[in-house]
Amino acid sequence: MQLAVFSARLYDRRFLEEARARGAGPAGLQCRYFDAALAPETAALAMGCEAVCVFVNDRLDAPTLQALAQGGVRAVLLRCAGFNQLDVAEAARLGLFVARVPAYAPEAVAEHALALIMTLNRNTHRAYNRVREGNFALDGLLGVTLHGKTVGIVGTGQIGMATARILHGMGCVVLGCDPAPSPAFAALGTMVPLDALLQRADIVSLHCPLTDATRHLIDAAALARMRPGAMLVNTSRGALVDTAAVITALKSRHLGHLAIDVYEQEGALFFQDRSGDIIEDDQFQRLMTFPNVLVTGHQGFFTVEALREISQVTLANLRDFATGTTCAHQIGTHPRS
Questions:
Q1: Among residues 50, 266, 309, 319, which one is catalytic?
Q2: What CATH number is given to the structural domain containing 114?
Q3: Which of 98, 114, 210, 309 could lock 331 by a disulfide, CB 3.0 to 4.6 Å apart?
Q4: 264 is catalytic
Q5: Would you call 308 a catalytic residue per the annotation?
């Protein structure tokens, strides 16, 4: 079986090949790696492959899926949890097998959320640069003690729960909001409506999927309900946050801090070296001018353990497809399921 891997970086190759060597995929599997992102224009690269493997910013809209199906592709493997970029109805119409990695090392993303909070709160990124230049002044580096502060967790799935456990262990008061809350959250904090969470939390951390209901969940109205000077953290999906509204809230100084590992228009920026280019995204460039904004390039998942699990599960999903075995991670319907 031939598998075309799109948006493939060196680390993708490393961990997928390690998983293949351990026998995670179907017998005789061969992988073809492409740096290019999947789109209608690049779908032809998968010609002759029965399956493709994609990441968060690859396109899986109707034109792309149709081009893949016409080229002989019968299975689409997402090496990520979110599938907001997927046209589920079109995939089902074309009879494509689609599977994802619904959960992988949730502590990895939760720990990155904590790293963002701690870095931005205590200004360690600025202190690092100062000390390297021989500047040991503390002015401008003042933070707050997190113990006793109120943190709102929006989304209490596995990553949200892992984040709640960490912050509860640090002595924070933890609030949660989720239409289908985890029963285990009761041991860590209190479930409240979103409005109450925004009004009470010193730090709001987003851990929910991107759907029609959650797109721009944090908009101008939600930001206005947040406590003055509060911190907003997003390690989930960029479009949960209305970037223009966040810039306005930062300019008015109502929003105290912003830490993001995801960005609404990240597809044109993240996972590539743009250091020698002129970045034309004016909103992103404006965000980078604020001293109270911290941005990382979608690296919350980026640990050895998470990448190992992602690769293992991805190839196990492909094996299920190849053998006709029921796949627990399949999305939508498929004639063989």
A1: 266
A2: 3.40.50.720
A3: 98
A4: no
A5: no
Residue type, 47: M
Kindly report the number of other CB atoms within 10 A of residue 262's CB atom.
23
Domain-located, residue 212: yes
End-to-end CA distance of the chain: 20
- The total number of structural domains that make up the chain: 2
Contacts of 89 (CB under 8 A, 6+ apart): 332
**Over the stretch 202-234, which tens digit does the pLDDT of each residue have?**
999 999 999 999 999 999 999 999 999 999 999
Site of tokens 């640990």: 303
Give the model confidence (pLDDT) of 232-288 as tens digits: 999 999 999 999 999 999 999 999 999 999 999 998 899 999 999 999 999 999 999
Residues 6 or more apart in contact with residue 60 via CB below 8 angstroms: 38, 54, 76, 83, 85, 86, 87, 91
State whether 118 and 132 are in the same domain. yes
Beta bridge partners of 153: 176, 205
Same domain, 110 and 165: yes
